[in-house]
Amino acid sequence: MTLSKKPRRSQIERTTETQSILVQAAVHLLWQVGYGRATTQAIARQAGVTTGALHHHFAAKEDLMLAVLDQSSIIIEARLQSLDDADAVHGADVRTVVDHLWQIYGRPDYWAVWEIIIGTRSDDAFHDRIVEHRAQSMAYIVKPWLGCIERLTSGATAAGAAAEIFEFLLIAIRGLSLERFMDKDDAYFDRHLGMLADFVRFRLRQADDAAEPSAEQA
Questions:
Q1: For the chain, which terminus, N or C, has the lower number of CB atoms within 10 Å?
Q2: What is the pLDDT of residues 66-91, one digit of tens each?
Q3: How far apart are CA 110 and CA 95, in angstroms?
Q4: Which has the higher per-residue pLDDT, 103 or 119?
Q5: Residues 22, 23, 24, 29: is their CA dihedral positive or negative?
Q6: Rounded to the nearest 5°, which phi and psi values hold at 111?
Q7: Quick check: pTM over 0.70?
């Protein structure tokens, strides 16, 4: 019996795989030891490659950190976009959306993003690039949320008001995620997520009511 040979991977496939491994290693170390100790040497060791191999793919630590942010944005956008899937939005309400966001931003590995933001404060030029990167990412991330508004309200809520509510929701969830460091139990998070959903529902209703007179006049 002749055994068929596995097809050889292309150079692009090997490069993509190595870069993915390096990004995952960086995320792990950012979460475990912080930005300062997540050196290129430590990341290469975590990934099981040489420092030279790391720099072949990422010329400097800054390039690798931007790749970490890129991956985070892609994952977040994809998960938010899933709210538009029929199964995800069937009977969806504000609490469903809050829980969905908590699954994204409440994850411990999201702390890697904050490690980069906080850890680069002493490097003005690079920190400005980080801030700009996050601003651009938010412009894409907010789109799926705006698409949910029609299902969560009467559809009259202005996009600007909805975007502000979404930004507040993210701020609150990110802040709540820090409580993980205080060893709070699941009931604690469930209770506060419920309170957050109640408040967001109230603000959406207010925004909806404020928009309806304008819609009728038009």
A1: N
A2: 999 998 888 887 777 776 554 444 44
A3: 21
A4: 119
A5: positive
A6: -60, -25
A7: yes
Question: For residue 40, what is the enclosing H or E element?
Answer: helix 40-47
Other CB atoms within 10 A of residue 104 CB: 17
108, 178 contact by CB (below 8 A): no
CATH number belonging to domain 10-59? 1.10.10.60
End-to-end CA distance of the chain: 76
Q: Where are the beta strands (DSSP E) in 1-129?
A: none
Spatial separation of the C-alpha atoms in residues 115 and 66, rounded to whole Å = 12
What pLDDT, in 10s, does the model give residues 11-57? 778 888 999 999 999 999 999 999 999 999 999 999 999 999 999 99
**How far from chain centre, in Å, is Cα 126?**
20
Alpha carbons 129 and 41: distance in angstroms, whole number: 23
Q: Which two tokens stand for residue 19?
A: 């870069």
